[in-house]
Amino acid sequence: MEQQIKPWLVQQSTIVYSQKWMKVKEEVCLLPDGQTINPYFVIDVPDFCNVVMVTNQDEIVMVQQYRHAAGIISLELPGGMIEPGEDPMVAAKREMEEETGYQANQFDLLYSIHPNPPLENNRAHFYLATQLTLTGKTAFDQYEDIKLVLIKKQAFLDQLLQNSFTHGAQVGAMFAAAIRLGWLKS
Amino acid sequence: MEQQIKPWLVQQSTIVYSQKWMKVKEEVCLLPDGQTINPYFVIDVPDFCNVVMVTNQDEIVMVQQYRHAAGIISLELPGGMIEPGEDPMVAAKREMEEETGYQANQFDLLYSIHPNPPLENNRAHFYLATQLTLTGKTAFDQYEDIKLVLIKKQAFLDQLLQNSFTHGAQVGAMFAAAIRLGWLKS
Predict the structure, then answer these.
(1) What is the pLDDT of residues A107-156, one digit of tens each?
(2) Structure ipTM
(3) Quick check: A29 and A41 in contact, CB under 8 A?
(4) Residue A7, preceding bond cis, omega within 30 degrees?
(5) How far apart are CA B103 and CA B160, in angstroms?
(6) Helix (H), strand (E) at residue B95
(7) I want to staple B130 with a disulfide (CB 3.0 to 4.6 A). Which of A13, A84, B57, B106 is the partner?
(8) Alpha-carbon distance A53 to nearest alpha carbon in chain B (angstroms)
(9) Could you give the CA distance from residue A128 to residue A107 in angstroms, rounded to a whole number?
(10) Secondary structure (DSSP) of B132-184
(11) Could you give phi then psi for residue B131, rounded to 5 degrees?
């Protein structure tokens, strides 16, 4: 008989830490083979979104930011957290416009993922924005300190193929965008 | 004068939750513009590794697992946590052998990332394993329930290009491997 992977049964779920938009839960889980895991950690964090933005001159619009947990100055795709109940595409357009001052006539979903499915319950959504218009109307969050960086197509592809980008799940979105744009071929 | 993005100064760091291999820290941070963030969350979790495994018949070796935080049956690359002080490549080879029962004669780093640099301080390392030999000697962790899935080259590429894989940062590693193997072209 073919092996079937089955979900676990949650017997108890306790919030052990809760601050602002983050919760840590400890769950008592019954496994299909009868074993119990106690505790299994689940981190409850918001969904987020990122946008691969391409100007009409084939430049990629990126942002440079300090990222405190990793302690790095990071070159990354614009984006941010999705508010509870907010449509992911609306959130992505909002974050793009606020962080970069660009609007897009064409805005398409690349794909969605689970950023860290063993540990975190959130989702991430990646978009491709083209036919951009610069309005210059940025609106940063209170603590945001962001530098806009435009990278020409070939330099972006070189950095992507040399694996220079190191920000989480964004690398996959960059490859998917390059395929969608015809910059990489199967 | 060109804008310079600067790091923050940690004025106080308190561990507010600690269980097994996970810690949550609340930090009081002084920003370059004089503002204070209190608290800023930092999640301390282990580094991890994943391996894109290619058989001599151009099949990709993947594993199917239940991932409890997201509540999904996930098709993903073999891999796991790196022990404190362990060499990432040694960990990746160990996880690959234990989960799949394959050894590799050729084992190369694809790239390393920060999985979630605003929130988490860990790193992830992705490898490409080729020239595989099946020993069949698996060694699962106590709670691991894993089904081995071999996917032929064209089916793998189709699923990758249709964005069927949804496990975190692994999508980027799959694209990078496909480029390295000459399955995608710039």
Answers:
(1) 999 999 999 999 999 999 999 999 999 998 888 888 889 999 999 999 99
(2) 0.95
(3) no
(4) no
(5) 24
(6) helix B88-100
(7) B106
(8) 18
(9) 6
(10) EEE-------TT---EEEEEEHHHHHHHHHTT---BTTHHHHHHHHHHHTTSS
(11) 55, 60
Which two three-digit tokens encode residue A151? 């990278």
User: CA B169, B174, B179: angle at the middle one, nearest 5?
Assistant: 130
Paired with A19 in beta bridges are A22
Name which of B162, B166, B179 to mutate to probe chain A: the one with the most chain A Cβ atoms within 10 A of its Cβ: B166
Using a CB-CB cut-off of 8 Å, the residues of chain B touching A41 are 19-20, 22, 69
Cα(A163)–Cα(A142) distance, rounded to whole angstroms? Answer: 32
* pLDDT bracket for residue B108 (50, 70, 90): very high
Q: Which residues of B touch A27 (CB under 8 A)?
A: 68
Mutate to test the interface with B, among A16, A23, A66 (most CBs of B within 10 A): A66
Rounded to an integer, what distance in angstroms lies between the CA atom of residue A29 and that of residue A155? 48
Provide the pairing of β-strand A59-67 with A48-54: antiparallel
Residue A1's pLDDT is 55
User: Is some CB atom of chain A closer than 8 A to the CB atom of B33?
Assistant: yes
Residue B34 φ/ψ, nearest 5 degrees: 95, -10
C-beta of residue A8 within 8 angstroms of C-beta of residue A31: yes
Pick from A104, A88, A85: nearest CA to A96: A104
**How do B48-54 and B79-81 pair as beta strands?**
antiparallel
CA dihedral B23, A47, A110, A170 (to 10 degrees): -30
Q: List the structure tokens of B39.
A: 């608290």
| CB interface of B with A, residues 114-133, below 8 Å | 114-121
Residues of B with Cβ-Cβ distance to A155 under 8 angstroms: none
- Compute CA distances B81 → B70, B88, B111, B125, B141, whole Å: 18, 9, 16, 10, 12
The CA distance from B181 to B179, in Å, is 5
